[in-house]
Each structure stands twice: as structure tokens, then as C-alpha cells.
Amino acid sequence: MGSELGRDRKPERDGDRDRDRDREESATGLHPVPDVAAYLSGRWSIERTVQDLRTGAEGSFRGTAAFRPDAAGGGLLHSEEGQLSWGGTVAPVSRTLRVRPRPDGTAAIEFADGRPFHDLDLRTGRWTAVHPCAADRYEGTFTAVGPDTWHLEWRVGGPAKDQLLCSVYRRLG
């Protein structure tokens, strides 16, 4: 009888373990982060879903993020690279941001060219940031769910866009 039960079980995959770990971390509540720059430092895997809420189109992004010392002005350089699948096409994409830590453990996030993007304060484990971009509005919710996992959800609305981007970051190494 034991061998029959074993045949019905599916082999566990890495993605299954990651989802289980995320559920366990989420069940414990928020993970307060006293120093956002220290928390983000290092390399992360990224899994992102992208939805166009007007058309119903869906896509995904898989890649990595590196938060490493920024020689050009202190703080951290945040670089993301990966593959975006959208509309039947897969293309390499990347972006770079700067994280400027503050003495209180929060940070100012800037675009690569130094323009302000938003503030980031994870001392309670959750933060909502708003960024106006022309006539569109970006609202991002950052949630630290554990020492090695955080979630980011961007809701973009306005005349040019109506999108939802949901990302899960998992620490590598």
C-alpha cells in the first residue's frame, strides 16, 4: 500500500519549494527592515507578472537584480536584467536605479540619471510609494515578507496605461 501512495505523489520542484517558503514567510506577517540598504544589498532572483488591464494582455519577466555599492555617489546601484515575454515575443530588458540611504534606515530611490523616483521605508515591513509620470500615476507597494523575500506590486493608471505588475524577489546565494 505504501508504494501505491508514493506513485501518486508528484516530484517536488524548486518553484514549489519557493512558493511554500513564501507562504510560510507571509503567514508570519510583515518583516520589519530597520535598514533598507543593508536588507537589499546582494543579488536577487525576480519573477514578475505584467497585466494590461485594458486589453487583458499578460506577460512575464524573469531575471535578476543586483544591489551593489554605487561608486558614483555612494549608496547602492540597483541593476535588473532578464527576459520579458509579451505578446508572443521574448526580449532582453534591463533597468538601473540608485538607492540613496538615509541615517534613519530609509532611502531615496532615484532613476539612473539622478532624477527622484520615490522614497522607500520598510521599517514596518511595508511601504507604499507614489510616482507621477506625465499624466499617469504609479503606485507601488513594497512588502518585506522575510529576510530573503520581498514583493513589489506596481499599479499604473492614467490615460496612457492601465497596468498591474507583480514581482517576487528572492535572495540568491
**Individual helix count:** 3
Sequence of strands across the biggest β-sheet: 6-5-4-3-2-1-10-9-8-7
Q: What is the end-to-end distance?
A: 40 Å
Low-confidence stretches: 1-13, 21-26
Order of helices and strands: HHHEEEEEEEEEE
Please state the overall shape, judged from the principal axes of the Cα atoms: globular
Rg: 18 Å
Q: What is the percent of helical residues?
A: 10-25%
Class from secondary-structure proportions = alpha+beta
The number of E-state strands comes to 10
Oligomer: single chain
Overall average pLDDT = 88
Q: Mind summarizing the main beta sheet?
A: 10 strands, antiparallel
Q: How much of the polypeptide forms β-strand, as a percent range? A: over 45%
Give a written overview of the molecule.
With 173 residues, the chain is of the alpha+beta class. Helices cover 15% and strands 55% of the residues. A ten-stranded antiparallel beta sheet has the order 6-5-4-3-2-1-10-9-8-7. The longest helix has 14 residues, at 14-27. It is globular, with a radius of gyration of 18 Å.
